[in-house]
Amino acid sequence: GAVVSQHPSWVICKSGTSVKIECRSLDFQATTMFWYRQFPKQSLMLMATSNEGSKATYEQGVEKDKFLINHASLTLSTLTVTSAHPEDSSFYICSAMVTDEQYFGPGTRLTVT
Amino acid sequence: ILNVEQSPQSLHVQEGDSTNFTCSFPSSNFYALHWYRWETAKSPEALFVMTLNGDEKKKGRISATLNTKEGYSYLYIKGSQPEDSATYLCASDNSGTYKYIFGTGTRLKVLA
Predict the structure, then answer these.
(1) Which residues of chain A fall short of a pLDDT of 70?
(2) How confident is the model over B56-78, as a mean pLDDT?
(3) Which of B42, B98, B101 to mutate against chain A (most A CBs within 10 Å)?
(4) Partner of A69 for a Cys bridge, out of A56, B4, B20, B99, CB 3.0 to 4.6 A?
(5) In this predicted structure, what is the pLDDT of residue B1?
(6) Residues of B in contact with A60 (CB under 8 A)
């Protein structure tokens, strides 16, 4: 139980384009999901908290207009990286919370050329 | 700024060896400490959630201890097996907001 999927697992896009990453809870419902980012040799860093039916809350230093989060249902949250630039190349991973525990997806490797 | 530190960064052990690694976290406003096991191309797998000072938890050959007063947790693996090879992450939840602060992980390689 408590399986979280992410799609795509990796994506390459051109600078200036937008990329959408999906995070799904497959066998449970989650009112709260989290988005993290990991740069090479660094730790997972929380970007934002996604709450179903309401606006996401972003951590300090994360541009909300660049990283659009939509949590339209209890099983799906999406992260859209708008007007991507090479410095947005990173590993993005989501988690879904149930009974005070976060369950993680396998992550998405984004490369912006 | 709250930091979580893990050591060592990586280690290699022989099959059958026992090993341990450390997670240091801010002791102020401590709420919970989480350990995850993360294999390449897979989702991080929750191992333990620890909340009380002096907690000791065990799952098979893996166990963990917690000292909230001094801000550290140890993860022990007894009789390491090649399938234990993974990155072990710890994450601190200070203040109960569920906003985890992760360490950079310890990469374990168990040699057959």
Answers:
(1) none
(2) 97
(3) B98
(4) A56
(5) 55
(6) none
